[in-house]
Amino acid sequence: MMKRNDWLLMGAVLLAAALWWGFTEWQSRAGAATQVLVWQDRQLIGTYPLNSPGTLDIPADTDSGHNLIRIENGTVRMVEADCPDQVCVHTQAIRGPGQSIVCLPNRIMVEVAGDNPEEVQIDDLSQ
Amino acid sequence: MKHKFRIIALLCLGLLAVGCSSSGATKAAEPAAMKEETDYIFGTLVSLKLYGPVDAAVYSGIFEDLRDVENRMTVKGISSELIAVNAAAGKNPVKVSDDTYRVLEAAEKYAGLSDGAFDITVYPLVALWGVGTDAARVPTPEEIEAAKALVGYQDLVLDPDVHTAFLKRPGMGLDLGGIAKGYAADRTAEKLKGQGIERGIVNLGGNVLAMGTKPDGSPWRIGIQNPMSDRGEYIGIVEATNKTVVTSGIYERYFEKDGVRYHHILDPKTGYPADNGLAGVSILTDTSMDADALSTACFVLGPEKAMAMANSLEGVDVLFITKDKRVLMTEGFKSVFTQTDDSFTVVDGL
User: Which residue, of A82, A111, B7, B24, has the greatest Cβ tally within 10 A?
Assistant: First the structure.
């Protein structure tokens, strides 16, 4: 027969396990999903936190041209680009893991690190 | 003694719980090593997804080959075979390489099939509108009439014996933007097969060619872009084995002026961006070159004529998405398509 203290101990151990699990889960989500990666011509040129207080402006000035990336309120968007088509500037702000904004003329890609839960369902996208 | 045993047992249970949770939190390993390499070619993002141990030289070899194709078929650089043909318009025929000739021949065929809805002599209009360039603007009606008069695939003369191309009138021009990427995807698949690579995905700026099956033998799952979104969302999934899926849409390249969106798919007959209620067209077939030309042709023709053309061609399936979020498909498309976005309505006719 288990005594009262045994139940308490078991409860405490399980609670500790649950807390530990919650902590690691939180850490992996918060840590992995909230990095913003900036690539220029396939080279990683910078990594920034998605959830930083205030506004973070990241100028990407390269031989190909000028881009300005803004991280604000947990979202990322392209606020300036000297490319002719402005497709990247028109793209809506991104926030979810795996989402990206591409400036083809300047070969700039901005992505939120992590796997896009929607994209896991498909192998590729016809667009 | 007994008490201690219980404590140890409980601690073990606790450790087990922690162990389980942490292994549950780590991601399952990929079933087979897929490696994706990307590069910027044809003014777009090119991606190769291949399985198994594939030498890095395979990827770089393909990219190099594609750049070579681009250098021959582009109209954007300083010189190319196409630029030479355009410069000699109204003057003399120009000899082109065998693969450029093959693409020109196919383009001529699809121009005839679509009654000029797909027309590679559209270059004067493309240059006038400049969609996707610094010079993008809405031309005057007079300018459009003048450019339109220079469009007409009947005035492109191809000589199969010597592989020359000749544009009969000065000012005419060729643009392979609606077919060259398709040719390049087919060519890439052939090159990969020649190196013993039977499965993978070739993606040239959204033109997808799915080689073979997935390693587990199931078909590839290809998303169809939601034409109302610019963030890579899709309306449904196509299951594809040894098939290509090419999509044309109003979201690809466009500019806005006075609240009106002008997209890049020009109707050679009107001289304006095709405006028939369509937002996107996807073609599912065996070769990417056919799919590339047909997606433009179908977009310009509109659903009714395009459906008739698709049904007359063997092994060609089409999906249309209208601006009011209706989806129309051929029977063959229906059989491999699964809708995932409920805000669209699948209809049997428009």
Answer: A111
* Chain B nearest C-alpha distance from A124 (Å): 5
Q: Which residues of A91-124 are buried (b: 16+ CB within 10 A; e: fewer)?
A: bebbbebbbbbbbbbbbbbbbbebebebbeebbb
A15 to chain B: closest CA residue: B14
- Average pLDDT by consecutive 10-residue portion of chain A (127 residues)? 82 86 66 77 89 88 90 93 88 86 90 75 92
The answer to ipTM > 0.90 is no
Q: Which residue of B has its CA nearest to A2?
A: B6
Q: What's this model's pTM, rounded to 2 decimal places? A: 0.81
- Contact call for residues A69 and A79 (beta carbons, < 8 A): yes
A92 vs B231: CB contact, 8 Å cut-off?
A: yes
Please report the residues numbered 120 through 139 in chain B whose beta carbons come closer than 8 angstroms to any beta carbon of chain A: 131-136
Q: B28 and chain A: CB distance < 8 Å anywhere?
A: no
Could you report the per-residue pLDDT of B188-205, keeping only the tens digit for each? Answer: 999 999 999 999 999 999
